[in-house]
Write a structure and sequence with these properties.
This protein is mainly α. The chain has five helices and no strands. InterPro entries: PurS-like_sf.
């Protein structure tokens, strides 16, 4: 079932959550996360380059150094965060090319 979730829309996953887990599920949010390993603190200039590389062209405000999913926790809502993705030690072709 995990492989099926990758190609489903958020609406489809929410429907599955309500049917198979709990009909009290009221919402589902997702975000992409980029984990970057550093040996030292970034300069403002280098951080700006990383933001430029990773941010959406028409929605740069949706790029941050912390998860946006934690906002609901701060408001006191009952939330659960599930992270799905490759191991941090795994390098994709995209990330290898971005490092060159």
């Amino acid at each position: 079932m995990n492989l099926e979730l990758i190609i489903m829309s958020v609406v489809e996953v929410l429907r599955l959550l309500r049917t198979k887990i709990s009909n009290q599920t009221v919402g589902l949010k997702s975000e992409q996360c980029f984990n970057i390993g550093l040996d030292s603190v970034l300069t403002k200039e280098k951080l700006a380059v990383i933001r430029w590389l990773l941010a959406e062209t028409y929605e740069p405000e949706n790029m941050g150094t912390e998860s946006f999913l934690n906002e609901d926790r701060k408001t006191g809502l009952s939330t659960m965060i599930i992270e799905i993705g490759p191991r941090l030690s795994f390098t994709t072709e995209w990330s290898a090319n971005a490092c060159r």
